[in-house]
Amino acid sequence: MKVLVPVKRVIDYNVKVRVKADGSGVDLANVKMSMNPFDEIAVEEAIRLKEKGVAEEVVAVSIGVKQAQETLRTALAMGADRAILVIAADDVHTDIEPLAVAKILKGVIDEEQPGLVLCGKQAIDNDMNATGQMLAALTGWSQATFASEVAIDGDSATVTREVDGGLQTIKVKMPAIISVDLRLNEPRYATLPNIMKAKKKPLDEKTAADYGVDTAPRLEIVKTGEPEERAAGIKVGSVDELVEKLKEAGAV
Amino acid sequence: MIAASLATSVSSGLGEEAMIFGQTDEHHMIADTVRSFVEKEIYHHEELVERTGEVPHEIAQEIKQKTIDLGFYACNFPESVGCAGLNHLEFALVERELGRGSMALTHFFGRPQNILMACEGEQVERYLMPAVRGEKMDALAMTEPGAGSDVRGMKCAAVRDGSDWVVNGTKHFISGAEHADFVIVFIATGEDQTPKGPKKRITAFLVDRGHPGFTIRDGYKSVSHRGYKNMILEFDDCRLPAEAVLGEVDGGFEVMNTWLYATRITVAAMSVGRARRVFDYALDYAATREQFGQKIGKFQGVSFQIADMITEIDAADLLTLASADRLDKGLPANREIASAKLYASEMLARVTDAAIQIHGGMGLMDDYPLERFWRDARVERIWDGTSEIQRHIISRDLLRALGA
């Protein structure tokens, strides 16, 4: 079985995000970028499936700007076998919307014929949480979202999902799109031999036009703003005062 | 230490986004991997090491094993002995990122002395291979109480007795010797009369811990790098066989110059990494601390310090990587390495000092790690050739050629 893992290049989770002065988005110039942490978990899971003999090949794919090549090299260094870069924008600030991404991924699936797609449940930049679901709709494959446990058993997969009320276990038919959640695994570090090997692994370059997909945005971002700043607290001297203040604030 | 793991990278790299000339994706991945290793596997042990001055055995073993699993152990050694064979530039990136963490802990991210490549015959299986596999740890001993910068002034001497050598003398400031299974020791094996006076002939020896007549004992308490101990070695009629000689008899300076030449890059690179960690604290504080109704970073007295800090850090980074790159290209690099070591270590002193100034009184409290970085920075201008020795190397390189 071949596993396809879409990975997105996003602002590093350690970086303090700055909103651009004109409110048109987040400033990405000269900022550290990394693989979306949920995608890293998907890559890790795919590699584990390969190590268990469930998967034969792990293919990482990224859709975006040319610099996403670095993100794919990271996936290759972790253990993916080869990579596909679909260039869909020149400006690092261009975010390709989920539907366009899903349509391109559909094109990649038609070409590659994987038996499974493992993707992050969402990207930490815009938290859309839509690509996996849209891809399932476009392909007609089963979908299992927010996976915290995945077991592949021939032509079906048992997936434990993290839902609001707790854990839900479902069984889906293969081929499937599985979007992964935070607790599925702990991604490995790239080992030094694999980092050195990553350069020699194949990385194909394509464009959105190769898949006949129009990536023009359908959504308009009206405004991007800083989160509201947390107001300073106060110190209270006694339990009575605390209760009084809570009452004043309407909290009790 | 409340703030020990404060917002890791506000800024950090040399334009994280931009490719520095000559650097590749692999370079970025090597640096990123080591950096996240240090942040996740080293930082949280630092407070314990700082408080106790010791690295617990289990923690040392854990770091060592994880480094082996990552394929980074002895990455400065070539593929011919089963290692990664990083070049000088790649290795400088590794050292730079390790420089962020406590030296007492990163010691176990093993980088044995390259000089072990001079091993021959049975020495290969006895010392070189176990060292690169992480089965045995090494240490290097040169300095003596009476012979610091003046290596040739050493008194520790070996006298021939049949085919053996009998050694007497003392070495001090020997880092890592408390964990070492064997030590590479430089010992005087004779003296030549020269027009400038007597000059010692020096030989490198491999000596096992526990060898009769050889003792390793605790050294001094240093203000820099707590837990990264300096030890005292004592030789008391210690008898070493001819096979203990590393390289040629009287060839100590040759092995030193061949293999220890590049170790100054390590000090420069580690200084850069540590400075970047310190800088992130300063930048974060300048951007959040308020006085007189505004962020202190709005005051030019603070913001200009920030500007100077990052300029110097980037300059030191480039100087260091460029000197390593020269070595990889086979170009003369002695002066450039000396400049990198001199500038980076002095830069670190200024950056740690400025970071404390920006933090004000809190910077001196051990609730923050800044006072530690400030103390640790002091030794970088002293070991592996003092700033004065580096200036001597740089100026002689330029003036000797002109007959001055």
Which key phrases capture this entry?
heterodimer, A: alpha/beta, Rossmann fold, 9-stranded mixed sheet, two-stranded antiparallel ribbon, 27% helix, B: 404 residues, alpha+beta, Butyryl-Coa Dehydrogenase, subunit A, domain 1, Butyryl-CoA Dehydrogenase, subunit A, domain 3, 4-stranded mixed sheet
What would you note in describing this structure?
The complex is a heterodimer of chains A (252) and B (404). In chain A, 27% of the residues lie in helices and 27% in strands. Chain A has 252 residues and is of the alpha/beta class. Chain A is globular, with a radius of gyration of 21 Å. Chain B is an alpha+beta fold. Chain B folds into 3 domains: 2-118, Acyl-CoA dehydrogenase/oxidase, N-terminal domain (Butyryl-Coa Dehydrogenase, subunit A, domain 1); 138-255, Butyryl-CoA Dehydrogenase, subunit A, domain 2; 259-402, Butyryl-CoA Dehydrogenase, subunit A, domain 3. In chain B, the strands form 3 sheets. In chain B, strands 1-4-5-8 form a 4-stranded mixed β-sheet, covered by helices on one side. In chain B, a hairpin with a 2-residue loop joins β9 and β10 (294-295). In chain B, α8 (300-328) runs antiparallel to α9 (334-359). The longest helix of chain B has 29 residues, at 300-328. Chain B starts with 24 loop residues before the first helix and ends in a 5-residue tail after the last helix. The A-B interface holds A 12, 14-16, 28-34, 67, 69-70, 73-74, 77, 92, 189-196, 198-199 and B 7-10, 12-13, 15-18, 24-26, 28-30, 32-33, 36-37, 69-72, 75, 84, 86.
Average pLDDT number of chain A: 94
The CATH fourth-level homologous superfamily of the largest domain in chain B: Butyryl-CoA Dehydrogenase, subunit A, domain 3
The helical percent of chain A reads: 25-40%
Number of helices of chain B: 11
Helix/strand-derived class of chain B?
alpha+beta
Proper CATH architecture of chain A: 3-Layer(aba) Sandwich
Listing every helix as H and every strand as E from the N terminus to the C terminus, the arrangement of chain B reads HHHHHEEEEEEEEHHEEHHHH
Q: Could you state the order of secondary-structure elements of chain A as H and E?
A: EEEHEHEHEHEEEEHEH
Strands of chain A, count? 11
Return the CATH topology of chain A. Rossmann fold
CA distance, first residue to last residue of chain B? 53 Å
Assembly type of the chains comes to heterodimer
What portion of residues of chain B is helical?
40-55%
Q: Rough shape of chain B?
A: globular
Largest sheet of chain A: 9 strands, mixed
Q: What is the topology, as strand order, of the major beta sheet of chain B?
A: 1-4-5-8
